């Protein structure tokens, strides 16, 4: 439980930090892109307004409070092409030597005209097409360097963000250990108290039980003595369950493990409940596949089967059906206990595996349950690296499935 809490805490911290970093990195790169776009639009608009010639004064960025830097045209490569539709003549101007790139510029101009759009981006250039009395004016700015810088900014920010998240992951592990430590200490004290209290209760209960049996032999049947014996048996059951849970919590690995005949083990424990089911007026059926072997603690697996069968008998209606099935599906072993009856509401299906939880208080009191059986079964199954789950239709049936 503590390990699961720690994992959830670290996962929550990392998800929040990842979302924050994505938001920060995305915002930085988005605003950088928008700033570059606004600057390019301002340059193109200025060139178009000045008939393709660099204006004497630097224009301001549309929607911006501050004008562009004075030397912006010296730093950015801009070109303009005048197109005379009648004679199909091109005139090329630029902020740099156009003799070296005139053919490339003319090819770009032809591609822009073919697109038949007033503005856009093409091969790393942002362009603007404006109608003039002599034909059309095409102005464009070379964005290849700024695009490369934007890509480098994105790559750098992603690398820095990933490294930072990795460092913060180890920091969050350290913080999670600090935060979980008080909970772990409290849980450890609780386990120790349950174990110690159970051991301390076991001796006086044994004394009471033995003396009650001696009195029964001396005085014969007595109603009050019967109450003492009945409640003593119930308390012994509770103490034994508490000791089992304490032992499962304390042991990090399986106890005595061996390869055993699971089919025979389940059959032997299931047959011991046959007479109990008959006396309780329940229909009891077994479907056990022969020859299934399993490596684990045989006694603990048999205890799981006993808990599920006992639970089914207690919650099956009169003349209801109880079915136990054991079979191998692929490389997994499936143990299922089905019973008709009231079923289990959907919102209770996870809670029934909690300690001391009883979704039907009146029925649990009548059957003498403390709400520990299913908690013990789940602890044993988890210790064997298996899964236990429940499915049900309220008012009709319930099925517990163990997958090993």
UniProtKB/TrEMBL annotation:
Localization, UniProt: Membrane
The Histidine kinase domain, residue ranges: 196-404
This protein's name: histidine kinase
Source organism: Acetobacterium wieringae
SMART domains assigned: HATPase_c, HisKA
Recorded GO MF terms: phosphoprotein phosphatase activity; phosphorelay sensor kinase activity
Catalytic activity annotation: ATP + protein L-histidine = ADP + protein N-phospho-L-histidine
GO cellular component: plasma membrane
GO biological process, one term: cellular response to phosphate starvation
Protein's UniProt keywords contain Membrane: yes
Keyword list, A-Z: Kinase, Membrane, Phosphoprotein, Transferase, Transmembrane, Transmembrane helix, Two-component regulatory system
Transmembrane region(s): 9-31, 158-180
EC code(s) of this entry: 2.7.13.3
Principal location class: membrane
Coiled coil feature spans: none
PROSITE patterns noted in UniProt: HIS_KIN
